[in-house]
Specification:
- There is one protein chain.
- The chain has 118 residues and is mainly alpha-helical.
- Helices cover 64% and strands 0% of the residues.
- Helix 3 packs parallel to helix 5.
- It is elongated and about 60 Å long.
C-alpha cells in the first residue's frame, strides 16, 4: 500500500529536524503574514500541493531546499525515482507567477476602490 506524501511527512511531526520543521510549518494553525483564516494550513496530500502552499505563504529558500530533500527521501522510501528538482522548480515558478498575478489584481481592485469610493 502506497502512502501519500502527507502521511509520510507526518511521521516527522514534533521532531526537531528539517522534515519535522517542514511538517510543523505546513500544518501550523498560527496565522502567517498572508493567511486570512486560521484554517489556512496545508490541506493537500502531495508534494505539488505543498509547493503551492509554500508559494502562497512565501516560504523561505531554505524551506524549498528541505522540500527537495523530502521529495528524494519520500520517493526512496517508496522505491521510486524522485520528482526531478527542475520539475519542482518549474512548478514553483508557475505557481509564483499565478499567485503574484492574483495579488496584483487584488491590489489593483483595492486601489481603484480606494480612489473611487461609492
Amino acid at each position: 500500500m502506497t502512502i501519500s506524501f502527507r502521511e509520510w511527512l507526518k511521521q516527522f511531526k514534533n521532531q526537531d529536524a528539517p522534515f519535522g520543521d517542514l511538517w510543523n510549518d505546513a500544518t501550523s494553525t498560527k496565522r502567517g503574514r498572508f493567511q486570512d483564516k486560521i484554517l489556512d494550513s496545508w490541506q493537500g496530500d502531495t508534494i505539488e500541493s505543498l509547493i503551492e502552499f509554500m508559494v502562497k505563504n512565501e516560504a523561505s529558500y531554505q524551506s524549498h531546499g528541505v522540500l527537495n530533500e523530502a521529495n528524494e527521501a519520500y520517493h526512496n522510501y517508496l522505491g521510486l525515482e524522485p520528482i526531478k528538482s527542475s520539475k519542482l522548480e518549474e512548478l514553483e515558478n508557475q505557481l509564483k507567477a499565478k499567485y503574484y498575478a492574483e495579488r496584483l489584481q487584488h491590489y489593483t481592485r483595492l486601489s481603484i476602490l480606494y480612489r473611487n469610493p461609492t
